[in-house]
Each structure stands twice: as structure tokens, then as C-alpha cells.
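#dry-run=false #mode=assembly
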Amino acid sequence: MKSDLDALMQDRRLDAILVFGDAEYNPPMYYFVGGGHVSSALLIKKVGKEPVLFYNDMERDEAARSGLKTVSFSEFPMTDFMEQANGDMQLAVALNFRRIFSEFGLSGGRAAVYGRMELSHLFGVLMKLASVMPELELVGESGMDSTLLRAMETKDDLEIARIRQIGAVTTTVVQMVQDYLTACDVREDEVLLKEDGSPLTVGDVKSKIALWLAERGAVDVEGVIFAIGRDAGVPHSVGAPEDLMTLGKTIVFDIFPAEKGGGYFFDFTRTWSLGYAAPEAQSLYDQVREVYDKVIENLDLNASFIDYQRMTCEYFESKGHKSQLNTKAPLEGYVHSLGHGVGLNIHERPWSALTAAGDNLLKPGVVISIEPGLYYPDKGMGVRIEDTYWVRPDGKAELLADYPYDFVLPMKKWKKEVGSKK
Amino acid sequence: MKSDLDALMQDRRLDAILVFGDAEYNPPMYYFVGGGHVSSALLIKKVGKEPVLFYNDMERDEAARSGLKTVSFSEFPMTDFMEQANGDMQLAVALNFRRIFSEFGLSGGRAAVYGRMELSHLFGVLMKLASVMPELELVGESGMDSTLLRAMETKDDLEIARIRQIGAVTTTVVQMVQDYLTACDVREDEVLLKEDGSPLTVGDVKSKIALWLAERGAVDVEGVIFAIGRDAGVPHSVGAPEDLMTLGKTIVFDIFPAEKGGGYFFDFTRTWSLGYAAPEAQSLYDQVREVYDKVIENLDLNASFIDYQRMTCEYFESKGHKSQLNTKAPLEGYVHSLGHGVGLNIHERPWSALTAAGDNLLKPGVVISIEPGLYYPDKGMGVRIEDTYWVRPDGKAELLADYPYDFVLPMKKWKKEVGSKK
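#status=ok
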């Protein structure tokens, strides 16, 4: 939680955290500022002090809305250094940063740099800052285990409320998709039809998802996975827009919307087969469901997240599938990790990969996805089930948005013929 | 254009461009890959060679869709270096990059780094790469004038077609907003009402804008400015969601949507006053319109964009307003630049600021916004008019989406009373 930040900074011997960039779609800045149209800003968080936000005058009202201590960049004109920098803009910015840091009591020590933004210019500036201010060590922390990700790892009640709310939006939209698909007419070759009689494509379904999310104040800014058949068998294949929606094929529907403006995410997956299922797909589904239930039943406060990944690998290997336990980078079977933290980043601490550090624990306050899956692209099928859970302070893992686990979705206007060869 | 890239790289003595991050919402990677769900990728563009895209196995289908030469990261496992790196993940990544670069013929020289992504981890990796591979100079180019921004500055026909298309979406949605607002009922205190009889807010209008854009495959990922009254007088104030829509106040509606997935932008602004206008607001509007027309009439092929900014400042100062010509960082009057390039970045070359370099020219192929404005927050008013133009190879500046310039929008169900004190 944010209240852990000073202690975490002390653990890492950080004197300051420096965050660059916009407040929107930039998790480190959003975490402090709370979003809004504050662009090309700088935030200085010194250990033991309140953060200070530097903004551009045109965005003074938006900056003020953050509730933070704010300072206008116009009090520190970069142009003061253009002569000294001999026209080198990046050097002038670096010299200006040195002045700002010094005036705010940061004249040396260790400062971690953060911010989701275009790298090129800032990289040039920071290299120049390092040379004009060698007494300040600029630290680029690991993307898996930074000080900020450690603070973000556990959520407070307000954050949980927001994640729960985006979860409710998510399952509402999933239900709308299910209702829409199962109400479609079906052509003789088992292709679903739109209202106008033309074939329904993956692209059509995705447009509806984007629309239904937007209506509810959410965005699928990271995309949505809606993949059928072979694409369902490749975990991160998002689905080819031209693919036709067809009965009897596995559909992996992985939806991870965020609050508009780059706020909190939710992560959710269901796998469906419309009308009927191939027996082999049903068997994969049953196995994924079984290990999912087993993991959920066994979630323990402060246990290692990685232990559940191992449990999942062992279960799948006992059923004859490959996994990362004994195969390096498998392309079929169980090919990914069990889950991850969910927050302002769609993927964040704690991690569950077998190679992750041992301190990825189910601490009170973490929000995690649990998402076992099996993938056989060459057989044209894939299965994943995913929900998002909150590990409460009382130790219970609470499902943040529930939704049925039906695999075969009956079609309202279509029935399997008796004696059909399918 | 992309075809200029090798010559531009030679001008800057660059042996390579290195792009990091996802293909979506990351302009440098999008420029090469064309979007899609390719995450945490690496692209190497050597001078005189075709680019090579390194991808993660789970996204092999998406990577293949780019049409580029692709290589799986699984051929270069980072784990090969974990022992040598003594468990330091960033060092292992840096050593792995050194191996990849060497195998692809980049064992030294100058390489510019690019990519919109979280800075912290990559900054750490690049610092370590610089120390294990000192023969490769990593260059962070200016965000105003990088090699890639110079290539992107002029657009080919396909890019123009895409910008024109998003422009058509933009003006369609603006028309829908105009139709919606002018059809509203009006309360006695001149507040607009929703269908259910409650007051219409800025937040309500913005939700509709997001929805109507999503229905058309566009996103307002950078936000939309819909600001009334005092907020209209602060150029980048996006508008407070709780503000009530009211007659007779200036409304600055600046909409800059992009293609879904982080593609091309469009940039467009109209200022409206519903029902009637305050005489002072009308006078500001007339001045903005006059200088807008003057600029458009005078746009010349290969002229300096900055000259038009100077022309605009001089015009506004002749009318008694402050501008950047004689006032440092004015907070009222004409407070910003005339326009900017528009492409995969909402703001890109060419630039028009008085402080911009002299080579920001209206070259054939540039796409620019023209957006003069006047702002008086303390008087509760602001005005801006903005359109996006393409400077064609034949020298004509072509408006990429047209829309009427009405300032006062008559309300369908409301008429100003004769003898009203307004």
C-alpha cells in the first residue's frame, strides 16, 4: 500500500522516487496523481516527505485536482539554461532538473526513475543529468520487483472497491456477449449469422465488446482476446477479426478492461464451445476446471504464489500434458504461469512463475488472477479459466466478480440433430 | 516517410535504431509493426537493412502478421546468462541483448533507442548494456526532433487515407454531439436537461463522445476536451465532469481520437455557445476566425511553420491580446502555439513554437493542425478553432475533414425572450 512506501524506500536505500510523464495511462504517475489530463509532468517523492507534482501552466486546474502539493514548471524556466547548454535542449533540461532537485533538497543520493512514456528523449536527458549531477545516482529498478510495484502489490479498501467495480462491468459485458452469441441464427455449415443474415465474425464480436465497455466507462486499452479454434490454442493470440463464429469450437474469451483514463484493471477469462463440444475439448476443459478448483480450495494466506504454479504443473503433467516444470518453453500443453497481481498494471506483483523470487506471497491485500489453461493449436483448441481474487486481511480469498463456468453454451435457435456425425 | 529513414539515419551517423515495447499504443513500434498484440518486443533496424522483430512465442501469430522478418526470443534464452550475471536479471538481459546485437551484425557504433513503455526496468538494463558493451553508443534523441520523428513527419498515401478516415469519424461524432445538445430541453435557469429531466453535465456529454467513437472503431485514449465557461479559458483543462451544460457560455470541444490499438490520430476543435453568445465572446470568436482564415489563405509549400505562429501572435497583439511574442508564458490571451504535426503521435513534427528550429517547414506530405485560440479564464471564456490539413505534393493545403464554423448554435426548443436582460 502507499503507506508502505517510505519503509520500502528505506529498504532499498532510496532517497527519492522520480516519476515522469502523463497522469493518464502511466501507472506510476496515476498511483500518485489519480489520473486526469496532466501531461509531461514530474513528481518528486522524497523518503519521509509528501510528493510534489510539477506541472505545465495550461494544466494548472487538472494538477490542482490531484490534491498534491503542486509547483508550476514556469517557476523554473528551462530557457534559463539554453545559453549554458549551448543550444543542447536535453542538456538544458538536465541542468534545469538539477536546479529543481537541489531546491527541493535532493542534491545527491539515490533516486529511482519511473514513468511510462516515450523513452528516447528522457533517456538522453537522464544520461546528461547523470553527467552534470554525478552525486545523484539514478536507479532503474527491475520491472518485476521495483519499490513502487512492492507498494502497489497490496491494495487498500478504496482500490479494492474500484477493482470490484470494474469487475462488475466486466462480467456484465461477458453476459451480454453470451446472450448475443447464443441468440444468433445458425447456418447449415454451423456458422453463426448476424441480424442481417451475413456471417458473424470475431471482429464483429470485438466491436460489440468495445462498445459495451465504453458505455460503462471502461476501455479495453490493452486489447481483448476473443480467439476461436486454432487461435484459441495460442494463449496470446487475440483472434483474427475475419474468423467466423462457428459451433463446436473452443472460444477463449479473455477480457481485461481498465477504468477509462488508465485506472485499475480487471482480468477475466471464460472458454466456451457453442452448441456442442468435441469430446477432446470437453476433456481439456474438465481438467482445467479441476485444477482451478483445487488451487482455489487451497489458497492460504502468506503462502508462496509459486507453490500453486508448481501444483498446477504437476497436476497437468500427471494428465500427460507438457508444462514449464519439465519442458523449457513448451508450445503446447500448459504453457504459461498460473496468475499475477492485478492493479494499475494488468500484470504486476505478486508473480507465480517457477522462476519468480520466493517472496511472491499471498499477502493480505494482494489482488491476483488465477488462470490455468491448456493449449493445442494443432488440434485447433485451447482452454483457459480465469478469475480475479482479493486476499483479504482475514485470510479469505474473495472472488471479486463471479460468473458461471459453463463450457458448452446451448444455442437458443439450434439443436444438435440426433444421429449427426458431429 | 519510412523510405527516408536510411538517409536520415546516415545524416545522424546512426548504425541502428532499437525499438522496445509493445506494438500497440507505442508509436515507434507501431510505425514498423503496424499494431497488434505483440508485447515486450524488440525491433532492430540497421541502416540500409530491413527491420527485424523479436517476439515472445505466445505471440508468434501476431508477430507474423506484421509482415516483417521475425525471430523468436526463445532462440536467445536470457537464462543462458543468469549464472554469469550472478542472478542480476537486468544484467542477464543486457548480456543477452549484447549477444543478439552481435549475431545480427551490430557489435558497435551508434544506436538510437526508442519505445513508449515503463522506463524503470529498461533504463536499468540500458545502463548495464552501456557498461558491458561500451563499443555501442546508446543515443537518446530529442523528443522534438528525433530521426524517427523526421521520418514520420511526411506521410505516404496510405497514411493520409487512414488519417482522413479517422477525420471522418471525428466530424461524424462532433455532428452527433451538436445535434444532441441543440435538441435538449432547457430549464428556466438556462441549464440543459437530459431525457429524464435531470441537468446535463460535461461528464454526460463525454460519455456519449466515448461511446460514439467506440461504435466507429476509434478511441479517445488521450482524452477529449469538453470545457465550458472558465474551464474553456484554460486551454488544456479537459472540463470538470460535474459542470452543468448551460446556454450562453463558450464551450471548447477539442477532440483528438485515434484508431483503436494506437494508430493514427486526428485533431479537431470547435467552440460553441448554445442559444446565444455574450458580445465579448462573439468578438473573441470573430478574431480567432479571422486569423484562422488569414493563416489558411497564406499557407505556402515549404514555408516555415513558425512564420505562421508569428503572424498569429502579431494579429492578436494588434487586437490588444497578450501572446508569446512579447510575454513569457502568458496565462491569458493567445497562450499556445499555432499547431503541430499529427500522425501516430497526437503532437509531432513539424512544430510551430517561436522557439522551434528553423527547419520546421510545410514540406509536401506533412499533416498539421492549425489551431489559433484566445483564453480569458477570469472572464469565464475561451475560444479555439482547429482543423487538420495535409500539405499535398502539389503544394495545396487540403482540409482532411470539414465541418461548419458556427459559433452560436440555436437551440431547437428554446428561444431568447425579447427584452431579456441576457
